[in-house]
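Office hours follow-up: a student asked to see two folded examples consecutively, so here they are.
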Amino acid sequence: MPITRRSFVKTLAVLPLARFERAEPDLILHNGLITTLHGALPEASAVAIREGRILAVGDDADLLALATARTRRIDLGRKRVLPGFIDAHAHPEWGGLYALKYVACDKDSIGQIQAVLRARAAATPGGQWVRGYLYDDGKTPRPLTRADLDAAVPNHPVLVEHRGGHTGFMNSRAFERSGVTSGTADPPGGTYERDARGELDGRVADKALAAVLAKIPDELTREDHRRGVALSSKLYASHGITSACEADAQPAGLQAYQDARDSGELRFRVYCMMDVGALDRYIAAGLHTGFGDVMVRIGAIKQFADGSISERTAWLAAPYEGMGDYSGLEVGTRESLYENSRKAWLAGFQLATHANGERAIERMLGIYEQLEREFPRRDPRFRLEHCTVVTPELITRIKALGAIPIPFSGYVNFHGDVLHFYGEERAQRMFAYRSFLDAGLRPPCASDYTASPPDPMLWLYSMTTRKDPSGHVWGESQRITVAEALRAATLDGAYASFEEHEKGSLEPGKLADLVVLEADPLTLPPEAWLAIKVQRTMLAGNWVYEA
């Protein structure tokens, strides 16, 4: 008897029942346009779910035949269904905390920012800090200055952090409180920026920002951290994101995710990359990558080799355009990066290092290569967080190591307003999805929230069009197809955390994490994608978001 498409699909629908001992489904979703990201059955119309996992995938007739009187059935109304999106590098905990505690400064004028800070100061007891977040100096006519902040809030210390997290903008009271003067030396890996007269202009970068933050009293409670995670969970679920990599968790952050899970408020799975500052504590406790469960799992040890792309502190091989001989900040020395990497590696951790510019990437590749020679390990999956500005030679070395580049997937569109600092030639080598894929690598999607929104439709648009908001194309040669972008946003995100056998595609045995979209990006033109909303988000067979 010849094998027809229908009989092949029917076989796929029925075979999983042996694994589940012919268990009946709890739920069947049918009449959908289901993109599975599973090579054996790329498209389907129905999926059967039992106990939070996928039981079978196929066509309506075959799967509805599996239903019993106890099975719930949901008609998807021919909506597009995708595996739940995975944000492979983000900061949801701190994003939620900042939203709870600080002033949103995502405004397009200096005057608007001054107004919201002035209002917050009016409600803040004298002497206490006024904190702002989400500021983006690429989206105001010019960067904030100390004078701007002095004029708005003269009697409170003010710190407004860039949404990228590597720079801050301070008023005079804040410098006084921090003990920083025009004569204060820049710390290694940081700058207190100065104007033409040598006076502090208000901007502090990387290790200088860290020094300031260390002097601000930490008044956040365990409850605050839990509430921050709960708030970001709602945001992530509304965008169809069912898994995320928390990119720099402190012990309090790990606790917050567990608390939110225990209270029923965690709506996405989290792979926690742990900040290197507490590495000795983790080792003493016997922790390492993989500890945890499908909801909260310990991931890599996180370090920093350089600064930010959106804030122009990444450590480049050549100077920034229009910025003299300035080529960014070397945030970590080779000695410290190697020693921390070695300790974490020998303790069983995956390694993940923030490296944006060519010089930072080259440094980390050298360290990873050295560790692989000295202490070989099967399938290490070294991570290069952001891995933004590359060369063919660097890509060859990444491939030889089997390392994973984690690019910013939405930056060409969202931060296109600062790409002129990098120039047209360099843009052909930035966020290099096409080059990575052609080399056989598996780059996932990453928002770096709060640096950019956790919005998968933005990711797809930016990766496939390479257009900034004005329509200018940066790095056309790095465009990828929508099919490739969807794989990056799902299955390759799972691969980056050793979880590709648990999630990232809709196939029997995997977790029932999926998203139902209001409109179909596979049939609409790219210019319509940014307006597409999520209708429903499912985590482990339960709806965690419904529009």
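And the second, which I mentioned at the end of office hours:
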Amino acid sequence: MTIPRIMFYCQHVLGIGHLMRSLSLVKALKDKCEIYFLNGGTRITGIPFPPKITMIDLPALQMDEEFQTIQSGDREQPIETIQRKRRELLLAEWERIQPDIVIFELFPFGRKRFALELVPLLARNRLAGSPSKIVCSLRDILVSKSDPARHEAWVCSLINRYFDLVLVHSDPTFQTLDETFGRANDLQCDIRHTGFIAQPPDAAGTNADIDTRLGQDDSPLIVVSIGGGRVGYELLDCAIKAGILLQATLPHRMLVLSGPNLPEPQFHRLQELVEGRSGLVLQRYTAQFLQYLQKADLSLSMAGYNTCMNIVTSGVRSLVLPFTGHGNDEQSIRAQKLEQRGILGIIEPYELDPDILREKISHILSGTGEQTRARLNTDGAAKTARLVNKFLEKPDTSLSANRFASPAPSAPLWEDTLRESLKCLHSIQQTIRIFFRDDDSDEDEETLRHLLDISLSRQVPLTLAVIPGKLTDATIQLFKRHKRAAPTLLEIHQHGWTHVNHEQEGRKCEFGPSRTYQEQYDDIARGKAIMEQAFPLRFFPAFTPPWNRCTQETFKVLDELGFQVLSKD
């Protein structure tokens, strides 16, 4: 029996939440599938990777703290070079692995900046007859966008063309996809809510010894954490200072986890705060995080997906500070819903004051009663594995070895001639320049989309001769979406005005001898204005006359209007 192969793409850019959730998923999938995990971010020291999983590290990329630019740790190479290498590696690994399923974590609902490397893979899979089924793995809440209509149209276009299944890792009684994605009903593939991805309490064990540095007394244990550590330093600083103030009236122990990505200068300042204080331990990361939460009397943290699920499954009393940077409301929505269910309390930004936080901590630790255990479905990893295995069993997802082998169509005569000519030129080491032009591009139709897929899949530049008088809004949006996935591959120029024949006899011509200079000028000028307005960044002032025919008057018009190239037979 052939073992199904799964290629899982994960790009963590700021924290480690996406990576940890993805690792939980592949851990659940690995017993019945062969897993190839493509890691797009930096390898995190101390985080164990599941056994029996093939790890493939792409040249690492991440976002800056302002979420404005993509960064790389390799300062020797331009970012464009690294992006090209990643794209080529992704395509090569897909060809080598021949996966039955490719799972993209978050994309295309997020990670839009990585479309440069992902859409070519999606296009190549479609051109090959979709041998790999394409799945999106999505968290519970999506981040708000500055232009939601444009973003959702782009997502729908990709999902409906390339994807087979969307898995939303949320309990639908808590959060559904349509609450943060308004066009969920326009998605044409199957959408399944799996339940939350959470590490079960019994998997961590509750008998592990507390770090001896924390002491072995019965005083309350407070665990402070901020996930990966690239954001949240203010919470750690305030929590340590509040704990120091509280120690005199309410003795306690405190474990502070800074995260592996906290900048070294900030970690050093925290070390100075905790130095010489008993029962106060600072470290970057522990693989026993859930064990500590199960023993803790209080957790102070951010409100990321994974941390909140650890709070839910451990039942620890909790205060969370939602991350709100860059207009991000994902953690606020999650925290508010959990607070409404009595699962945790929220730290408001103005409460990041040692005296105020000390009072909040004291109030909770002095209270009685256990933390409410929410009735949320946290079996998402297991359900995801069941759904994926069931998906693999469908007849149209046959695991036959020849799924990637498609019969080569018989080549037309011109193709044989072209191949021979290219071989001849190659043998004498002569370089030739070829450009690919497609005429009559004005309507959003399957033949045009197929051509764009070929361009994306093989990274072949393409120039489209667009008829401005027939250009539709749908086509304008199609070209703009294509530009996001491949900014340098597509060039657009003008193809006449309406592609209408004006000659009463002889060969067809839109700008022929029967038309005056002024008539030609008016039509071409109107077309150029439309092109410049529709494609301000992609329009190139070249002109292809319909039927590849025009007159000397046309040359004068083109010169007057500032065209730089005439492309015709």
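Two things to take away from it. The longest helix spans residues 79-97. The chain has three domains: 5-197+380-402, 202-366, 413-566.
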